[in-house]
Please model this.
Amino acid sequence: MRTWMKRVSRGYDQMIVPHSDAVPKGRFTIVKLTLSDGTTISKRVDIPQEHPDTRYRQMIS
Model:
């Protein structure tokens, strides 16, 4: 795990606009993985699945 942590970086890009429903307000997470074959996998999360607001939205939709 410590070996992997050396390859982890964190950044902030002001050009990326948060989703209007982001929780907490104005925040989001983008995770990018680069596999050993060079393939890049990316996922953006604006509303965490286990956040209370998410459960409420699922119940009313």
Notes: The chain has a mean pLDDT of 79.
